[in-house]
Amino acid sequence: MLTRRIHYYSGVTIALFVTLHLINHTVSLISIEKHIDMMTQLRKIYRNIFAEILLLSAVGVQIYSGLQLYRSKYKTAKGFYEKLQLWSGLYLAIFFVIHLSAMMVGRFILELDTNFYFGAAGLNHFPVNLFFIPYYSLAIFSFFAHLASIHYQKMKSRHKDAGIQSGIILSIGVIMIFLLMYGLTHGFQGISIPDAYGILVGK
């Protein structure tokens, strides 16, 4: 019970940041400049020692507690949303480890600004985009799938249309994938990445 509660509150912390992050990426539909401008403003909130320690701690707790919950439930999970919660959570744990490691290497070793171009580089170069497109798409879907699963578990005994509501959340996730891939690739036409970020795609 304590593990589940800790997992929940660390998840809320992460969800708030991810929501801001996704909104920021959605602004790429307007322009790269607007995306970077918004990120600059958001960094005033989360890019400081206190916010970063809080966020990294929440991610660490989320991964550890999530794996504990996965081990205790994966054999007994029943129903679509209960299984979806486990598998989406497992993918998010893997994604967080890879993504945060990449961000740390980018910031502190490669000394790159981990802005729009850092995230978009892999999406706009063949053949590495064959990895990065599904990698990011699955992360976005897993985030919404996890939310949908939690919503269903909490609401199924209260509302008969909990499944429909969770389905809507999943649909929003699919739409978000399309919008972000569209924005981060300039309408699927590709974006010219500055030379400094070429190292990310083997240039």
UniProtKB/TrEMBL annotation:
- Show the GO cellular component annotation of the record: membrane
Q: Which InterPro entries match?
A: SQR/QFR_C/D (IPR034804)
UniProt keywords (A-Z) are:
Membrane, Transmembrane, Transmembrane helix
Q: Which residues cross the membrane?
A: 7-25, 45-67, 88-110, 130-150, 162-184
Record flagged with keyword Chaperone:
no
This protein's source sits in the domain of life called Bacteria
Record-given protein name: DUF4405 domain-containing protein
Top-level taxonomy: Bacteria, Pseudomonadati, Bacteroidota, Chitinophagia, Chitinophagales
